[in-house]
Amino acid sequence: MKEVVVLAYSGGLDTSVAIKWIQEKYGFDVVTLTLDLGQGSDLRLIEEKALKLGALRHYSIDAKEEFASEYIARAIKANALYEGKYPLSTALSRPLISKKLVEVAWREGAVGVAHGSTGKGNDQVRFEVTVRALDPSLKIIAPIREWGLSREEELEYAKRHGIPLSEELGKTFSVDKNLWGRSVEGGPLEDPGAEPPEAAFEWTRGPEKAPDSPAHLEIGFEGGLPVSLNGERRGLVGLISELNALAGSHGVGRIDHLEDRLVGIKSRELYECPAAVAILEAHSDLEKAVLTRHELEFKQLVDSAWSRLVYYGLWVDPLREDLEGFIERTQERVSGIVRMRLYKGNASVVGRSSPFSLYDLSLATYGLETRFDQRLSEGFVEIWGLPSKVANAIRRRAEKIGA
Ligand code: ARG
User: Fold this and answer.
1) Which residues approach ligand 1 with their CB closer than 6 A?
2) What's the pTM?
3) Which of 74, 341, 348, 363 has its CA 20 to 30 A from that of 385?
4) Domain contains 48
5) Residue 166's pLDDT is what?
């Protein structure tokens, strides 16, 4: 009996060719695994294709709930945006796919796992770091990184091995999709100076095609997570799917990012993340109401460290949970309602309220009924500015002596 490796299979050209390639070049039997992460593909068709191409067995796993509750939820609490822009949609999915690869490998008694990433990106790092941390005894095979085939040679190889090409030939872009967003690379996008063509977008309308009247929306939060839309309680998966459709129809969620990959390459990335953009905007706004300015300042450092760690493929590093210890504690008070307006590409917060809000009208008001004693400000301002006043005086004196 041949040894087995488990391949993360998307149903696309690269991983289809990989099934044959692993059998031919390495002499392994291939078991394929496809997760439903909300990418909207038909998992039955993918399974059929894998088996037709000679996979020994195929696993289809609906992992949407786990993806939302264990990965996206943490990203929401951390306001996760890599380099201030990218909601980490692809990055979050890789450690989960890796975990499932390892679990299936154990079940199958496999000697290794395989993935379809190239040697130029972040995904190889995310897969391999996670797999090594979970089971260092597993071999890792990265056929696309190893085979060195050009696109033409790959198509030729596919043709020779009876891999259906009909869907592939018209494809301009390299796309990855899940519940948290859609990433688009390649083709005309490789010129960072050129505006992305409309054909690159699938989940969002251009602002000129978006409705002329705005939509208003209330997102309810509890413990840092969105739990309702317009007063109706929703699970995280349903809430995100619904928001992707609604916010996307108003043109919300288009992100054009010149991104620094871990491997040192700058790359032009295009994203469509309607739900992520709206939810992160609402969540960080609500935090501003309930956390002190000192907490907010420090949390920004923690949030950006969390985002970088996850982008760089280090989901399994203990630092993530250390940071989450702080984040979790702050989220206890992040409950309330955020009102948003979706209009021609923007998701703007137009109101927020919370039982934990630190906003105090009797302090803030310019009206007469205020508890803020303005007389105290005189001495405060004097002392606040003291170090700067002294420094300026000394500088003036030194300039005089020097002259
Ligand atoms: N640049 C993004 C990231 O590193 C998206 C990668 C998209 N991956 C893909 N196979 N198309 O997370």
Assistant:
1) 90-91, 122-123, 174, 176, 183, 185, 259, 269
2) 0.96
3) 363
4) yes
5) 77
